[in-house]
Amino acid sequence: MKILVVGANGQIGKHLVSFIQESDGLQAKAMIRNEEQAPFFENLGAETVVVDLEQDIDSIAKAAEGVDAIVFTAGSGPHTGKDKTIMIDLDGAVKTVEAAKVAGVKRFVMISSFDTRREAIQASPSSFAPYVAAKHYADEWLRSTNLDYTIIHPGLLTNDKGTGLVKIGAEVERGEIPREDVASVIVASLENETTIGKEFQVVSGTKTIKEAINSI
Question: Residues in domain NAD(P)-binding (predicted)?
Answer without folding.
Answer: 7-192
